[in-house]
Amino acid sequence: MILAIVARSFLAPIPGSIATIVGIGLGGYIAAKWAKTAGLYHGAVVGAGWIALEALGAVPTASYSPDVLTDTVIVFATDALVLFAGAFGGWRGHPEPSSSSDKGRGR
After folding, report:
1. How many of the other CB atoms lie within 10 Å of CB of 84?
2. Contact assessment for residue 81 and residue 23, using Cβ atoms and an 8 Å cutoff
3. How far apart are CA 70 and CA 95, in angstroms?
4. Does residue 56 belong to any structural domain of this protein?
5. 77: part of which helix (H) or strand (E)?
6. How far apart are alpha carbons 43 and 82 in whole angstroms?
7. Within a domain: residue 101?
8. What span, in angstroms and rounded, lies between the C-alpha atoms of 87 and 61?
9. pLDDT tens, position by position, for the chain (107 residues)?
10. Angle of helix 13-35 relative to helix 2-10, nearest 10 degrees?
11. Total structural domains within the chain
12. The domain containing residue 17 runs over which residues?
């Protein structure tokens, strides 16, 4: 989250958006490592948390287009990518065992 806020503050809107997506992905990864179970869920919650903070105006956001409809579509697409990045980071942070025989082997 800190990486995303700093990047959005000092970079142009497009690189700032990329930094946000990468930062949320890393946040999802860390959340999954800390949680030890349900990594995909915890990663998605990280993405949803960012979207909620963005909607409340607690984090800086950029305007992508002067046209309201185009800007809204871009914001929805960016939020979907953020949610996906968080979920993907969470999934990679705690992959499930490949079979039931892998359980309990100190993973």
Report:
1. 17
2. no
3. 37
4. yes
5. helix 68-93
6. 10
7. no
8. 21
9. 676 667 666 766 667 677 788 888 999 999 988 887 888 899 999 999 988 988 888 877 766 677 888 878 888 888 899 899 999 999 888 766 655 555 555 55
10. 180
11. 1
12. 2-95
